[in-house]
Design a protein that fits this description.
single chain; 722 residues; alpha/beta; Rossmann fold; 4 domains; six-stranded mixed sheet; six-stranded parallel sheet; 19 strands; globular; nucleotide-binding; NACHT_NTPase; leucine-rich repeat; P-loop_NTPase
Length: 722
C-alpha cells in the first residue's frame, strides 16, 4: 500500500472513530491524562512529582519470553540478565505491544522496580495525548492492588468499570462490544485474588454480577468480552498464575541498558557536571553498576550521589550496596527533620523507634512475601493506622501510602531492596541489642556476632532460589564498624569484635572451596565486597594481567581462586560474546571449573581441549538451562565418541536449548551417534541451523538420515557438513 493510500485509510479510520466515540470519550481521555501526566518520584525537594514526559527514559523491553515462573531472588535475576548478550534479544517498544492484530493478551514480566508500572503509565499517557494506539477507544487501567479492595464484592463488569471510572457511566453494555477497548491489569504479583481458572463459573454477559475473581478469569480466558485487549504485568515469580494458553505474547522489561542508565542520570540531575561525576563513580563499582539496570535503584543512587558528589554533604562516597542504602536512610532522616522541624536530629529516640518499627514491618512482610500492605497488615504488625502519617513523615521517600480510588489506603516501601535493607537493619539491631536471632526465632542461647554472621551465611547458602542473597550482603555490610558509625543515631549499641570481620571473611573463603552453584559463588564474592575484602579477586586479576592465563593448567589454583576467576569473568565490563577455552587451559578440569562462563557466553570454542563424555554431560545441563545464552558450540577435535554425543543430545532436545550451530568434526562419531542426533532434532526441530560432522564415520545410513532432515522444511537445519 502506498503512503498516500495509507494516509487516506488513517484519516478515514480516525473520522470513523470520532463518529463512533461517545460524548464521554474525550472527557475520559482528559481524566487519564490528568492522572498519569506526572510521575511520583517521591522527591519532596523537587516538588513531589515530575512531568512524566520530561523525566521518562525509554526502557529496554524484549519479546518472546517464556512467561515461566522464576522464583529466584530478583537481584540474582538482574545479575544473570546483565550477562546476557544483547544480540540475542528482540527489543520491542511499549507502544507497539498491540500492533500485531493477532495479539489479544500480553503478559509483561520484570523484577520489582524495573519499570513495569511506569511503562504502563507512559503507554496510557501517550494514548490520552493522541500520540499512539488511537485505534483503541478506551483504556481501563485496573491495578491489582486496587482490585484487592473490592475482592469480596459481587459486581458485573459494567458495574466494576463504573466504580473505578465515573466518566463512563453513560456507556451502554452494548458499547463494550462495539468499541475496541484495552484492560490493563498491573501488578499480578500484588494480587490477593485466587484467580481460580479451573473452578470459577463461566461468564459471558457484561451485565451479570459475579465475584471480581470470576470477572477476571473469564476476561483472561476470553469468555467475557473476547474482543477486548488485555495487558497483564507481573514480577516473574507470579507469572504462573496465568495459564500459557491464555497469553498470546510474553515480554520482559529488562530495565535500563547501559546507555539508558547514563541518559537517566543526565535527565534526573540538572547539574551536568555532577551527573558526569555520578556516572563515573557508579562505573567504578560493578555491583552498583549492575543494580542500575533497575530504575528504582538509579533513583536511590541519584538521591544519594547528587548530594554527596555535589558537595552538599561530606563523607565517604558509597561503593557498596550497604553504604548506598545506609546513606539513603540517613539522608531521608535528615530531610525529614529539616522539612518538619527546620533542624536536624530533633528526637533521636523517636526516630530510632519509628525506623525500627518500619524495619519490623519490613521483616514480617518479607517473611510473608508481601510488598504491599493494607490497613489490616499494619494492625497485625502492631502499628496503629492513625499513626501511619507519622511514619510517612519520618521517611517520606522510604514508606509511602496511596489512596486508591476511595477504596482504602495501600502502603508500600519504594522498592523491594529498601524493604530488605530495613528488614536487615531490624534483624541486626535485634541481635546487637538483645542477642536475639529473629531468623532462628530463638532468644535463649548466647552467641557471638561472628557466630550470628556465620549462621546467616549458612542459611543463605541453603536457599535454592537465593531469596536471602541481598539480605546477607546487607547484614555483612552492617557488621562493619564504619557503617555502624554512620548509623550511631539508630543503633544504641554498636561494635563488632576486632576479629569478627577477619573470621567472617575466612569462613566465606572456606565456603568458596565447596561445590556450590555459580550464583552462590557470585553472591559470596559480593559479600566479600561488602566486607571490603578483595584479596582473592585481586590475586586472580594480577595473574590475568600478566598475560599468563593461557597456562592455567600449570598453576595449582585453589577452588576459591577458580571461583574468583569465574566471578572476574562474569562481572567483567566486557560482554561475554565468545568464550575460548584454549585461552585459559585446553583441559577438562579448566572447562568444568569455568562452566558458568560457558553458560553466559553466546559462542563457546572448545575444540581440541581433550574433552570427554564427562564434559558432554555438563554441556547438556548448560544447553537445557533457561539461563543459557549459548547459540554456537565448537567441540571439534575431542574424542567424544557416540556415548558423548548421546549425552549431549539430552541437552539439545530440551525446549530451553537455543543452539543454532554445532561443530563436531573429528569426534569419533559413528552411525549410532548420528541416530542420537536425528532423534534429538526430531524432538526439537526449531533451533539448530548448522551441523558440522566432517571427518567422522557416520556410515551410509547416518548420512541418509541426516540429509533427510536437511531437505524437510519442518526442520530449521540449513547446512549439513558430513
Amino acid at each position: 500500500m502506498s503512503d498516500i493510500n495509507m494516509f487516506i485509510v488513517i484519516v478515514y479510520c480516525n473520522k470513523l472513530f470520532s463518529e463512533l466515540a461517545p460524548a464521554c470519550h474525550q472527557k475520559f481521555k482528559s481524566s487519564l491524562k490528568k492522572k498519569f501526566h506526572r510521575i511520583n518520584e517521591r522527591i519532596p525537594y523537587h516538588g513531589g512529582s515530575t512531568l512524566l514526559n520530561e523525566i521518562y527514559t525509554e526502557l529496554y523491553i524484549t519479546e518472546g519470553g517464556s512467561g515461566e515462573v522464576n522464583i529466584e531472588h530478583e537481584v540474582r535475576q538482574i545479575e544473570t540478565a546483565s550477562r546476557r548478550p544483547a544480540t540475542q534479544e528482540r527489543p520491542i517498544k511499549c507502544n507497539d505491544l498491540f500492533k500485531d492484530t493477532a495479539v489479544r493478551t500480553v503478559l509483561t514480566n520484570g523484577v520489582a522496580g524495573i519499570g513495569k508500572t511506569v511503562s504502563v503509565q507512559k503507554f496510557i499517557l501517550d494514548w490520552a495525548e493522541g500520540k499512539a494506539n488511537q485505534d483503541i477507544l478506551f483504556i481501563f487501567p485496573l491495578p491489582f492492588r486496587e482490585l484487592n479492595s473490592v475482592k469480596s464484592r459481587k459486581l458485573s463488569l459494567v458495574d466494576l468499570l463504573r466504580l473505578f471510572f465515573t466518566d463512563i457511566k453513560q456507556l451502554k453494555p452494548a458499547d463494550y462490544y462495539q468499541y475496541k477497548v484495552l484492560f490493563i491489569f498491573d501488578g499480578l504479583d500484588e494480587s490477593r485474588l485466587p484467580l481460580d481458572f479451573q473452578n470459577n463459573e463461566s461468564l459471558s454477559d457484561v451485565t451479570q454480577s459475579a465475584s471480581v475473581d470470576v470477572l477476571l478469569t473469564n476476561l483472561i480466558k476470553g469468555n467475557l468480552l473476547p474482543s477486548a485487549l488485555l495487558w497483564i504485568t507481573s514480577r516473574p515469580a507470579a507469572c504462573g498464575q496465568i495459564h500459557p494458553e491464555c497469553v498470546d505474547q510474553v515480554t520482559e522489561v529488562r530495565g535500563f541498558s547501559d546507555p539508558q542508565k547514563e541518559e537517566y542520570f543526565r535527565k534526573r540531575i540538572s547539574d551536568q557536571s555532577v551527573a558526569n561525576r555520578v556516572i563515573t563513580h557508579i562505573k567504578t563499582s560493578r555491583s552498583l553498576y549492575i543494580m542500575c539496570h533497575i530504575p528504582a535503584f538509579c533513583w536511590i543512587a541519584a538521591t544519594v550521589l547528587e548530594r554527596m558528589l555535589g558537595e552538599a554533604e561530606s563523607g565517604e562516597i558509597p561503593k557498596t550496596l550497604t553504604q548506598m542504602f545506609t546513606q539513603f536512610l540517613i539522608f531521608q532522616i535528615k530531610h525529614k527533620d529539616q522539612k518538619y522541624h527546620g533542624k536536624c536530629d530533633t528526637d533521636p529516640r523517636q526516630t530510632r523507634e519509628m525506623i525500627l518499627a518500619l524495619g519490623k514491618l519490613a521483616f514480617q512482610q518479607l517473611e510473608k512475601g508481601n510488598l504491599i500492605f493494607y490497613e489490616e497488615d499494619l494492625r497485625e504488625c502492631g502499628i496503629h493506622v492513625r499513626e501511619v502519617s507519622v511514619y510517612s513523615g519520618v521517611c517520606t521517600q522510604i514508606f509511602r501510602e496511596e489512596l486508591g480510588l476511595r477504596l482504602g489506603k495501600v502502603f508500600s516501601f519504594v522498592h523491594l531492596s529498601v524493604q530488605e535493607f530495613l528488614a536487615t537493619l531490624f534483624v541486626f539491631f535485634s541481635f546487637i541489642s538483645q542477642n536475639r536471632n529473629v531468623l532462628e526465632h530463638q532468644t535463649h542461647s548466647k552467641s557471638t556476632v561472628t557466630d550470628f554472621l556465620k549462621s546467616a551465611v549458612d542459611r543463605a547458602l541453603q536457599s535454592e532460589n537465593g531469596h536471602l542473597d541481598l539480605f546477607l550482603r546487607f547484614l555483612l555490610g552492617l557488621s562493619l564498624e564504619s557503617n555502624q558509625t554512620l548509623l550511631r543515631g539508630l543503633l544504641t549499641q554498636t561494635g563488632s569484635p576486632s576479629n569478627c570481620r577477619e573470621e567472617t571473611v575466612e569462613y566465606i573463603k572456606e565456603k568458596l572451596r565447596e561445590n556450590l552453584s555459580p550464583e552462590k559463588y557470585i553472591n559470596l564474592f559480593h559479600c566479600l565486597n561488602e566486607l571490603n575484602d578483595h584479596s582473592l579477586v585481586q590475586e586472580v586479576q594480577t595473574y590475568l594481567n600478566r598475560g599468563n592465563y593461557h597456562r592455567l593448567d600449570e598453576v595449582p589454583l585453589s577452588p576459591a581462586h577458580w571461583s574468583a576467576l569465574v566471578f572476574v569473568l562474569l562481572t567483567s565490563e566486557e560482554e561475554l560474546d565468545v568464550f575460548d577455552l584454549r585461552k585459559y587451559a585446553p583441559s577438562e578440569e579448566c572447562f568444568l571449573r569455568l562452566l558458568p562462563v560457558v553458560t553466559a557466553s553466546r559462542k563457546a570454542v572448545l575444540s581440541q581441549c581433550r574433552l570427554s563424555e564427562r564434559s558432554c554431560a555438563a554441556l547438556a545441563s548448560v544447553l537445557s538451562s533457561n539461563f543459557s545464552s549459548l547459540k554456537e558450540l565448537n567441540l571439534s577435535g575431542n574424542n567424544l565418541c557416540d556415548s558423548g554425543v548421546t549425552l549431549l543430545s539430552a541437552g539439545l532436545e530440551d525446549q530451553h536449548c537455543k543452539l543454532e550451530t554445532l561443530r563436531l568434526r573429528h569426534c569419533s562419531i559413528t552411525e549410532k551417534g548420528c541416530k542420537a542426533l536425528v532423534k534429538t532434532l526430531k524432538l526439537n526441530p526449531s533451533h539448530l541451523r548448522k551441523l558440522e560432522l566432517d571427518f567422522n564415520e557416520p556410515g551410509e545410513s547416518g548420512v541418509k538420515m541426516l540429509s533427510a532432515l536437511l531437505e524437510d522444511p519442518h526442520y530449521k537445519l540449513e547446512k549439513l557438513d558430513i
